[in-house]
Design a protein that fits this description.
With 107 residues, this protein is of the alpha+beta class. It has 3 helices and 5 strands. Helix content is 27%, strand content 32%.
Length: 107
């Protein structure tokens, strides 16, 4: 009974003090759009993954490049990865498109 109590306390401690982690890549470009979110999926420990993530709003609006990209993981995604033993691993991507360069004069 004592081992079960310790295991429950340890599990509660891990859940209470766990948090998501975030990686942010930023450029010197000015943000032209709001934050867009997409979930990327990786299968079989990264052997099969989504190679290209489409960004139609950055490409079709005539906006050049991205001004910021964030990669986020949270406790739910971490638990999914653990339960599936790494066979399935989701991650959330957030990005902002950059503004086009301003026109200074006409040719």
């Amino acid at each position: 009974m004592r081992h079960v109590f310790r295991a429950l306390v340890f599990a509660a401690f891990m859940v209470a003090f766990s948090s998501c982690y975030t990686y942010r890549v930023a450029t010197h470009a000015q943000s032209g759009t709001g934050v867009k979110k997409v979930t990327a999926h990786s299968y079989f420990w990264g052997l099969a993954q989504q190679k290209d993530i489409p960004t139609p709003n950055c490409d079709t609006l005539g906006i050049y490049g991205m001004s910021e990209v964030r990669v986020r993981n949270n406790i739910g995604y971490a638990l999914i990865t653990i339960v599936t033993l790494g066979i399935y691993s989701p991650v959330q991507l957030e990005y902002k498109c950059g503004k086009p360069c301003p026109k200074t004069s006409e040719l």
